[in-house]
Design brief:
Number of helices: 5
Distance between the termini: 33 Å
Strand content: under 5%
Radius of gyration: 19 Å
Number of strands: 0
Order of helices and strands: HHHHH
Length: 133
């Protein structure tokens, strides 16, 4: 297939299961959680401060652990101060797991692009395929 383009219908046939699965198992469930701004900020910070990333020092990993504890404590305090159920925090962690699943699916999709010679931006491909955890 080198040098040939795939027809749109073939691309759809191959990748549709990934797109549907992403919507059903990730996008819609995340939307339904209806996180507020504080929860979204906590979620973003928890994703960025993952101590399991490769290529970070032990000192950086320890700092990530400490910062995640602070974020969790602050989020719990936010729930208590605003009379929100603290079990919402579990939903934030559930969202983190969904994001990890999404990352694996995206890696599979990029690998499928390579198998079927579908062009993908090289920088995007490298970013997706890099070993993170």
């Amino acid at each position: 297939m080198i040098g040939k383009s795939m027809k749109d219908i073939d691309v759809y046939r191959i990748f549709e299961p990934y797109w549907k699965s992403y919507y059903v198992h990730v996008a819609y469930p995340l939307f339904e959680l209806k996180f507020d701004q504080m929860e979204l900020m906590a979620l973003l910070a928890l994703m960025l401060l993952d101590p399991g990333y490769t290529n970070i020092s032990e000192k950086c990993s320890e700092m990530c652990h400490r910062m995640r504890k602070v974020i969790q404590r602050e989020l719990r305090g936010y729930y208590l101060e605003n009379n929100k159920p603290t079990d919402r925090m579990l939903k934030v962690f559930e969202a983190l797991l969904l994001m990890e699943k999404t990352d694996r699916w995206l890696q599979e999709e990029v690998q499928m692009c390579e198998m079927y010679n579908v062009q993908a931006d090289e920088e995007f491909r490298r970013m997706v395929l890099v070993r993170k955890i």
